[in-house]
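User: Fold this; tokens only.

Assistant: Input:
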Amino acid sequence: MQSARSRNYIAGGAIPARSLVKFSADAIVVVATGPTDDIIGVTAELDVAQGERVDVYRSGSAEVKLGGAVARGAPITANGAGAGVAAAPAAGVRNRHVGFVEVSGVAGDIVDIEIDLGFITG
């Protein structure tokens, strides 16, 4: 049985632990590669290979690997490798955020976030 907090999918490619992901097909997820992707959540604490099952946190809190400096309380989105970076509005663009950082961090840090899927528009 799947919980409201996480769901299990099939990896459509290699996915590092604690990455932001999006759907590539029904029940298949891949690494999110930018703020305009429809990010659905954060992968669990294990790397997975293509075709393996992967748990994705869709609500609650999760750990995310950062790809840049982010201040506590800031919304985050995906960089080109599925790591968390500061989300910012862009004129005429609907950028997705996956949640809000609980503590400040820099590239390579693992930080807690509160998942709250939404959009930032400019």
